[in-house]
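Lecture notes, unit on protein representations.

Consider one protein chain, 538 amino acids long.
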Amino acid sequence: MGIIRRMGGRQMKYFNTEGSCKPEEHYMVKLDDRLGYIKRMLVERKKYFVINRGRQYGKTTTLSALEEYLKDDYIVLSLDFQQLGTEDFADEQKFARAFGEVLLMAFQFNKIEDGKLPEMLEEFIGKKDGSLKDLFMCLSRMCAVSAHPIVLMIDEVDSASNNQVFVDFLAQLRGYYLKRDKTPIFHSVILAGLYDIKNLKLKLRPDSEHQYNSPWNIAADFDIDMSFSVPQITKMLEEYEADRQTGMDIKGVAEEIYQYTSGYPVLVSSICKQLDEKIFGTEGFETMQKTWTKDGIEKAVSIILKKSSPLFESMAKQLDMYDDLYKIVEDIIYCGKKIPFSLEEKSINLGRMFGFLKEERGHVAIANRMFEMCLLNMFMAREAISSDVYAQGGSDRIGFIRDNMLDMELVLKKFVEYFTEVFGQRDEKFIEKQGRRIFLIYLKPIINGTGNYYIEAQTRDERRTDVIVDYLGEQFIVELKIWHGSEYNERGERQLTEYLDYYHKDKGYMLSFNFNRNKEMGVKKIQVGDKVIVEAVV
């Protein structure tokens, strides 16, 4: 929970990263436009749909806000399947009774005054052996006599996603939906969870005959962007600034937060929470104005990536469960492989559904920079256990740090020596596939605990990767490239200078993996326009 502060006798808002956000308690992005669209385009049109997004993507917050938004025109019954226990799914009678009980709680909690409806539920619950059929007959009668259309919301449907009883429940919903012109049923049904409910049959009945059949193929598409845009983050920070008077560059801070998060809701809130509650007052960040800066955000990201979190743990678990997905992510991060984006490919669809893959210019990309940094750390940690490369980087580390500054030129010199000695005789195919991976593993222990690095997504391809190293406020731009002739090399140098301009740097670094037998290995400095490039060749 956030630090409790008071202003003028009232409790001040704080940034929340646990559970649903409430506008009266938390600094949060305004959802009015999103809610209006959902009501107008989906609920009013009597649609049944699923909000499936990655962990901590704002699903529960959206449902909570939508319930409040709809309550003047509809009876909204909001359930959470985490309220049900394993035993409640043992058979359809137990499920039907448990569902009726939590539905009755929703009536009581929301203080819905239509007494006829809870009485009808109580009558059903009183039956000891009521089936799913009996439950839906009761629900249909309730919808027929209700003074207002009834909207059903169920959160955390993943809690039941491996259970046949729940699939049968969905099948009943589907049946009533298809004949609702003659048989009353819920006006709209909204399910929320990580998995796309359309995949339930796939999970429960893997045989080829039935694997693509779904009891939920009636669902309308939910294609609303739930990430936060720069203008939305800006408005949230404006509210915070009005309370705290930090003197921050609001738009600049919003843009920097977006650069790391791509608007992933919990990551946005996590960075802000770290700045507000943890970083302010520490060395180098003695004032709020110093805290809410690019350096402060970098520090916040570093802290978040070092902590165990449900989001990152979930990502690691999912990659362990799906080998093909793991390989896709690994190929993108290490090799810059261009993989066409297609949701027909199951692994890509899963990664998109889990929230850590996205489409970018027709290809698969990691969803945001923080996820990429987390995945890099995860891959490195696994390889470090048995990696001589990681150990070598760690043993060389002391010599690379001088007066708390990273000597990147010396890092490249030592790496060239090490790579030439250990891997110099390996074939071209090995070096092309593994070269950049080896450098990243070598670099990891050198900056570990003090700095961060990430791969610039916009420049990544199978021939070229730009690595951005942040070390104690200093940035180093390092281009990793596969040699493809002098002309390509010169073009790469020009590209690097353009990138240095973007980062307002006069000096950059280039590591070339050259397969030419007549190559000149080592490190040299070259002048390209007004920029200096330290170029290493192995």
